[in-house]
Design goal:
A: alpha/beta; five-stranded mixed sheet; 7 strands; B: mainly alpha; three-stranded antiparallel sheet; globular
Chain lengths: 168, 438
């Protein structure tokens, strides 16, 4: 767990809990420190945001892998950054409470997250503050619900065809 | 296409590029309803003046050059594209949700249908993630078979690109040639996996079956016929002034811009940025074979075409080495946890039958944890973020599709160009909509 020390040293301003799993470094910033952490990582050399997604831990709340002091919440925003020069990846897991599923957008730091954040909003209903085009991306604009949430059952929505007159 | 030895990270982000992204002069950020309103009463978004020249044009989703069902909202002034918005989701079938309801063994059948032009890569990345969570080692031969199949798949996928790219630009005979060569590769796939696409061949624990007898001869045949035909392509396309004029200088992307937009694969390499996960984050046995990472110089549509053409040669070069280096051994792990007992044992032993039954009905349990794995697919970094809660099905499976991220470059590539160039640009980005929409 030498990674922990490294990151603690480099992020003295905002200490961020970190763990390592299968050799992959995972940071657990609190929501308020999320953008600041990403920004300092970017300045450090993490030049591209590879992926951004959400996990809904509704039916698996007591997951392992969280360091001490990190309170598990229902949603987790997962962001992957890549430092090409040092060939290093880092993953951030940010806990998002179910009653206020909002995080700041990373658009200003990594414009490539625009579509990924739209997808996360579309499928999970997590909102991204400051996103330039906060709208659905995969589902139709008038869709209700967020299908990748764990409380959205499979088959709950009948398959719609264009000719069908009834509202889903 | 001069290979650059050193990676060029830390490129300074041009400030004007930043402004261009933020003020939305390239990306059309509005809903369909707003766009429809604008289409009826066109007005300048800044001054509010009625501008008769400006209009919103809808392209797709059934347009032949949109590679499936990509739809574009284009803000046009005359023939010039100002802002644009890719509208996606027409193939969305909720495959990530489906993945949560299939066992880890069934998982590859699902993910293989995402990128239908290079299905083996999706299977590979899912299997690698599962294996990492399980903590199992895959036999060496299985690893090499995976590498062989993936490189052939890369060649097949890029051949498909050569075909569609040619057709989109009016070189219709390329359509026939590209499919013809791809067919040769698919024939080999059919012999090995039983299917031409959606193979479900690479599975957690190894591959579904060993290579069939005579695979070396089939590969030698492939290696014999494809390279000369690639040379033909060069004569047909590279040396063709019309083809060059359609591509050169069209849709130029800066390395910094590509990185900022999370673009990967040939799009990133065509900008001159030397980056390939096969070399820079070696997986499988890529550190034991020789190949060049092909990079472009200008980042235009021609470079993206040329990079892909040369990558076919590099893939075949890897295949050639695999022919000589293929080790003997098992094609799947003998870890009884994930591999059913041999067929013969089932006739003899009740326990073996139960074991077999359990693996295929309930599935094997995967320890709790989360992992991200990535491979270099023909379109860029294909990643799989897998969360397990200790059960036989993934708790969450996210596929980071390279086409999905690459599509974000479209508005920037088309900005200020003619609509005829839009077709060349879409083609050169080579999105596979099955993977974009998942």
């Amino acid at each position: 767990m030498s990674e922990t020390d490294t990151f603690a040293d480099e992020h003295e301003a905002a200490p961020v809990a970190s763990t390592a799993l299968f050799g992959q470094t995972v940071l657990h910033p609190v929501r308020d420190a999320y953008v600041a952490t990403v920004e300092s990582l970017r300045d450090e050399g993490y030049c591209t945001a590879t992926y951004l997604t959400v996990v809904d831990y509704l039916t698996h709340p007591c997951r392992t892998g969280l360091p001490e002091g990190v309170e598990p919440e229902r949603f987790e925003v997962v962001v992957g950054l890549f430092d090409h020069a040092r060939r290093q990846r880092v993953r951030l897991r940010i806990q998002i409470p179910a009653d206020d599923p909002t995080v700041p957008s990373l658009f200003d730091l990594f414009p490539g997250t625009e579509a990924m954040e739209r997808e996360a909003y579309d499928l999970f209903g997590v909102c991204f503050d400051g996103h330039p085009d906060h709208s659905r991306i995969l589902l139709p604009e008038d869709w209700t619900g967020h299908p990748l949430r764990k409380d959205e059952g499979i088959g709950a929505i009948p398959v719609q065809f264009k000719a069908a007159s009834e509202r889903r | 296409m001069n290979p650059v030895d050193e990676a060029t990270p830390g490129i300074d982000m041009g400030s004007d590029e930043r402004v261009r992204r933020r003020d939305g002069s390239a990306v059309l950020r509005m809903t369909e309803v707003e766009a429809a309103g604008l289409a009826l009463a066109p007005s300048d978004p800044v001054t509010g003046e009625q501008a008769d020249e400006r209009m919103i044009l809808n392209m797709g989703p059934a347009h032949p050059s949109t590679h499936g069902v990509l739809r574009l909202l284009l803000e046009m002034e005359g023939e010039t594209v100002l802002r644009s918005k890719p509208v996606i989701g027409y193939l969305h079938t909720g495959m990530e949700k489906t993945g949560e309801n299939l066992t880890f063994l069934q998982g590859p059948t699902n993910v293989t249908r995402m990128d239908y032009a290079s299905p083996l890569f999706s299977e590979l990345v899912f299997s690698l993630a599962t294996e990492q969570l399980l903590g199992i080692e895959v036999p060496v031969r299985a690893t090499w078979i995976r590498m062989l199949m993936c490189e052939l798949n890369r060649a097949a996928s890029h051949l498909l690109f050569q075909a569609t790219n040619g057709m989109d630009l009016g070189a219709v005979s390329m359509m026939v040639y590209g499919w013809r060569e791809r067919e040769e590769v698919l024939r080999f796939f059919e012999k090995v996996t039983g299917l031409r696409m959606n193979h479900n061949y690479i599975r957690p624990g190894g591959v579904a079956a060993d290579l069939p007898d005579g695979w070396q001869e089939d590969l030698r045949h492939l290696l014999e016929i494809i390279p000369p035909r690639l040379d033909e392509y060069e004569v047909l396309l590279n040396n063709q002034p019309i083809f060059r004029a359609r591509l050169q200088g069209v849709g130029v992307l800066e390395p910094a811009e590509a990185l900022a937009l999370s673009a990967t694969g040939p799009i990133l390499r065509a900008t001159g940025y030397d980056w390939d996960l096969r070399r820079d984050e070696p997986y499988l046995a890529y550190d034991q074979v020789e190949f060049d990472v092909v990079v472009g110089t200008c980042g235009d549509a021609f470079d993206r075409f040329a990079v892909r053409l040369e990558e076919i040669r590099q893939s075949l070069h890897i295949v050639e080495q695999v022919l000589d280096l293929m080790p003997d051994g098992d094609f799947r792990t003998q870890d009884k946890k994930v591999t059913p007992p041999p067929r013969a044992r089932i006739d003899e032993s009740m326990e073996a039958l139960i074991h077999h039954f359990k693996i295929f009905t309930e599935g094997f349990h995967v320890p709790e944890g989360e992992v991200y794995t990535a491979v270099e697919s023909p379109r860029g970094e294909l990643g799989c973020y897998l969360v397990s809660d200790g059960g036989p099905k993934p708790y969450r499976m996210h596929i980071r599709g390279p086409s999905f991220a690459n599509l974000q470059t479209l508005p920037h590539l088309m900005h200020g160009r003619l609509i005829a160039d839009a077709v060349a640009v879409i083609s050169s980005v080579d999105p596979i909509m099955g993977e974009v929409d998942r």
